[in-house]
Amino acid sequence: xxxxxxxxxxxxxxxxxxxxxxxxxxxxxxxxxxxxxxxxxxxxxxxxxxxxxxxxxxxxxxxxxxxxxxxxxxxxxxxxxxxxxxxxxxxxxxxxxxxxxxxxxxxxxxxxxxxxxxxxxxxxxxxxxxxxxxxxxxxxxxxxxxxxxxxxxxxxxxxxxxxxxxxxxxxxxxxxxxxxxxxxxxxxxxxxxxxxxxxxxxxxxxxxxxxxxxxxxxxxxxxxxxxxxxxxxxxxxxxxxxxxxxxxxxxxxxxx
Length: 256
Ligand SMILES: Nc1ncnc2c1ncn2[C@@H]1O[C@H](COP(=O)(O)OP(=O)(O)OP(=O)(O)O)[C@@H](O)[C@H]1O
Ligand SMILES: [Mg+2]
Description:
The chain has helices spanning 42-49, 90-101, 110-126, 142-154, 172-189, 200-206; strands at residues 2-13, 16-27, 31-36, 57-62, 65-66, 75-78, 160-164, 192-196, 209-214, 229-235, 241-245. It has 256 residues and is an alpha/beta fold. The chain has a domain at 2-84 and 159-253: Rossmann fold. Strands 6-7-8-3-9-10-11 form a seven-stranded mixed β-sheet, sandwiched between helices. Bound molecules: adenosine-5'-triphosphate (ATP) and magnesium ion. Adenosine-5'-triphosphate is lined by residues 13, 18, 36, 38-44. Magnesium ion (MG) binds at residues 42-43, 164, 196.
């Protein structure tokens, strides 16, 4: 049963088509890696999944519901660069994220504030940041800051986590420990995850499916022409054998 359904999705910026003919069905709890050349529209696709931007045409439904264009708590996002608030302590960062999701724009009072602080502390304990709750993000290592960013995205208890090159700026050791952290989170929460990465090993290691974004046709006279689509849908749990070879979408390296 499809949880996230993307049908005939297309996004243009001005005269340029960035992505087109995107059709994909994702079950709840699946981990999807998105790979593809720089500039092919992976982040654009995530922004559409986040409902931060509207498609030029086509639809996305989550649990059968069409996107409304209104802010929604089903999805949380983490970017490559740490998106935490530098002027707030680690704990306050989580409390603020909780407050935002409750529509109170960063302000919680009385019991609600106490409860949010207690919940923030237990979230931090769970992700191994309890001991630095009173510190500021600048005093944390890269891996710790990125764990904080993930914890912030999780404050709203989203059913879908969107990760845009979340570990791209981390050293190899920290990256490995973040992989473990993410795998554990998945088991605990049953979240559906979409992760953009340029690291193919990481893509196949963490995901159930690896979707490749590419242009089906390249025009040698105009490399900007035409949008990217999903050219391969690999089963990462079965030696990377494609679920489907999307014949009509594979590269021909020439214009028609
Ligand atoms: N708001 C915008 N207005 C106009 N063009 C945009 C906008 N956002 C992105 N683009 C263009 O859309 C194309 C796809 O960008 P996008 O950031 O989605 O690529 P990407 O696959 O995430 O690349 P990278 O791997 O480098 O992060 C790029 O050519 C970019 O310049
Ligand atoms: Mg990007």
